[in-house]
Each structure stands twice: as C-alpha cells, then as structure tokens.
Amino acid sequence: MSTVGGDFAPYGLAAFLFAVFCAYWAQETARSAWLWFFLGLLLPPIAGIALLSKNAVRLERLAQRRKDNA
Q1: Angle at CA 17, nearest 5°, toward 49 and 24?
Q2: Is 48 part of a structural domain of the chain?
Q3: pTM above 0.70, yes or no
Q4: In a domain, 33, yes or no
Q5: Distance (Å, whole) CA 31 – CA 4
Q6: Cβ of 24: how many Cβ atoms within 10 Å?
Q7: Which stretches are transmembrane (predicted)?
C-alpha cells in the first residue's frame, strides 16, 4: 500500500539536492546563493543549464584576461 505523496518523494529529494548544489556552485562563483537555490528548486533543468552557461562565460573571460596580461 502506497502512502500519500510517496511517489513524489524521490523527485522532491532530488530537486532539493540539486538546489543545494546550485546554491553552492553559485556561492563559489560569487553569485547569489539564495537566488540559485530557489531557481534550482523550482526549475531544476533551466537553472542547471543557466548556471553552466554563466560559468562557461566566466571562464572564457578569465582566459581572455590571462591572455591579455601575458
């Protein structure tokens, strides 16, 4: 016999863990951890893609600065 809401528990846990990961990653890259936590909780796929995209742009800028300084 299934409990009420038992079928959604794994998704909820996965969404929460993804939100924590987004918040940690955002904090490490000098972004708002709370904003990315809630984005990761409410819109996991979109938040993940956006965070990866922003991080890629940041890494490209750092590489360009290093190239310009060399």
Answers
A1: 65
A2: yes
A3: no
A4: yes
A5: 37
A6: 14
A7: 9-27, 33-52
Report the alpha-carbon distance of residue 27 to residue 42 in Å, rounded.
Answer: 18
- Rounded CA-CA distance 70/64 in Å is 10
53, amino acid identity:
S
The domain in which residue 27 lies consists of 10-69
- Does a structural domain hold residue 46? yes
Task: Please report whether residue 53 resides in a domain.
Answer: yes
Burial class, 12, CB count within 10 angstroms (exposed 0-12 / middle 13-18 / buried 19+): exposed
Number of domains into which the chain is organized? 1
How is residue 33 written in tokens? Answer: 């951890």
Each residue's pLDDT tens digit, 22-69 = 999 889 888 899 999 999 898 888 888 888 888 888 888 888 888 888
